[in-house]
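Morning. Coffee machine broken again, so started the prediction first thing and wrote up yesterday's gels while waiting. Chain of 176 residues, entered below exactly as on the submission form.
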Amino acid sequence: MAGKLAFFVAMVVTAVASAAAVNSDSVAEILKENGLPPGLLPGSVKEYTLGGNGRFKVELFKECYAKVGEDNVYYSPTITGDVSLGQIKNLVGIQAKEGWFWFSVTGIVANSKTITFQVGPISKDLSIDVFDSPPVCNSKATGQTFSEWFSKVLDGDVEMNVSSVLEETLPRKMLQ
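Came back before lunch.
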């Protein structure tokens, strides 16, 4: 009887240790295991789940704005999608700014040199090198504030451009 109990305890300890090892993997490691660069998601991950079918859910501590290359990207507090080798489909929770507007990214495809962000039928390629490390989160989109821009206009350093005013002063949600 003592032998069976010891065997059972050993199995439970092994199962708990295995579960802890799976849960200690970072999101960046899971991305790399699926042929994706580690910098697709910010490092401020509170928790995540990954199902056997590739369905994932990432919870951030709070919403995140980041500069990715020359582009502004918004990460909602909850990001979901389906990850498989070299791609993420059915993505929800990431938006990219193009011109005046924020667009929801619905898919990501990686190859050896580029990352393709899919926004419905439209796509944009970026160098894979931009995603070597997780982006740094900010509380707002980076770029020139209205006050900074207006000061330059008053000083004669900048030509007045209505699109710049709209882009920097209207809240992101108004432009969706």
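The beta strands are 45-50, 55-60, 64-68, 71-84, 87-98, 101-104, 107-110, 114-119, 122-127. Going to sketch it on the whiteboard this afternoon.
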